[in-house]
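[agent] plan:
  1. take the single chain provided in the ticket
  2. run structure prediction with default settings
  3. attach structure tokens to the ticket
  4. add a short note for the reviewer (M.T.)
[agent] executing step 1
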Amino acid sequence: MHQTIQTAALAQRIGYKPASIRTHVWRHGHFMGIKPIKTPNGRLLWPADMVERLTSSVGEVA
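[agent] step 2 finished; step 3 output follows
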């Protein structure tokens, strides 16, 4: 199984509120091009490698 992180950890890394991320997924099906894994209990898990790419590219944009 691939490594994943929870929505709260993603939000903390990029400076968003978890609810904003969930709302974006609800409306668009993804967040910044990353599709979450939906668990049976409704939680969203994010592929760690994709999050790492996102957070590394956020630092490059100035």
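[agent] step 4 note for reviewer: Helices lie at 7-14, 18-28, 48-60.
[agent] ticket updated
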